[in-house]
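Students often ask why we bother encoding 3D structure as a string. The short answer is that it lets us treat folding as translation between two languages. Here is a chain of 391 residues written in the first language.
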Amino acid sequence: MTRRKDEHRKGDRFLAPRQKAKSTSSVTALFMACLLALVPLSEALAGGRGKGRTDPAERAAQRASRKLSHKLHAKARWGRSNLVDVIITYHARPSIAEGHRVRALGSARDREFRNFRMRSARLPERALNRLANNPNVKFISRDAPIEMSSVAARQTARLPNDQDIDLWYPGWGLGVAVIDSGLGHHVDVWPAPLQFDFVADPDYPPSGLGDGYGHGTHVAGIVGGDGYYSQKTYRGVAPYADVVSLRVLDNQGRGFSSDLIAALDWLVDNAATYNIRVANLSLGKGPEEPAALDPLVQAVEAVWDAGIVVVCSAGNYGSNGNFTITSPGTSPKVITVGSLTDSGTGTDFSDDYVSTYSSRGPTAFDHYLKPDLLAPGNRWIAPISYEGGLK
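And here it is in the second language, the structure alphabet:
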């Protein structure tokens, strides 16, 4: 007996393909009906937490959490009365009304920035979710602490020697903003430098030299020191540059992101007045959000867009491995510099190496390739303020 190839055996009966498809469809329909019948039961067993039954307050909290850095999530969830310092980034420039809203949430202090769509504030933790639910709020970050980055030789840096025609080329008339712990009196840093102190008053920074920590004076000497004290043995890379110190770190070498942002805000407004063409930031913090949401990164990029070359240190966390570049050096726009150790063998550069402490890329979150270049970062002799705690 012959059978057709497109017939299928089932016991002693044969079903044609069309008959089988009909039978299968019936079984599938029955299965789906049973499954759909179980959905209301599963929602009931889950206490009514189905997609359409989410509590409005819970939905609002979920929306708010997407605008909070991960360091603020727990604080918002607990909702205590403890105060937390934050930096709020807005979609549009915040109006006077936005300031009123922040103060209505219990802000103990808040600060506006002229050139950035940001505001810093000190708020109760329980107010974070309500603040984040403001449609104009783009993101809320911690006003995170920042700290200095330690900053060998002239030959490794390829600096000109006494007979080089380029010796007197750099520096004259060039304004360099050194954003650090301040600048103390030292004969190597000449002409007479200027300083504006954002630690003392970030809104109206007073002038006058002073560096209780010493790191800023050291960096300023590396940038523009003329080597007078050492009979020109230890000169900076751009002797006689016009150094403008913007003090954002205290006498322990620590500060806050909002003070740094205030200094960068001032820089955008005043760079032309002091002919500032370069800004040096040998400081930073661990990244807590992608670069596009990081307020420090947004601020340095605004300075860059204003025509100022921004140079940031890579950080001092190389011993922790890769993904350790600090903010704002995580910006794809600015020049991020890692540290090179010179073995002191003159013009033989083959034994020089990346300093063990120098932070490694790529960047966290965005995986940008950083640092952009290496420069001598230790065994460098340069000025220090007489009152500096680093001595």
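Translate back mentally: Residues 17-45 form the longest helix (29 residues). Keep this in mind for the problem set.
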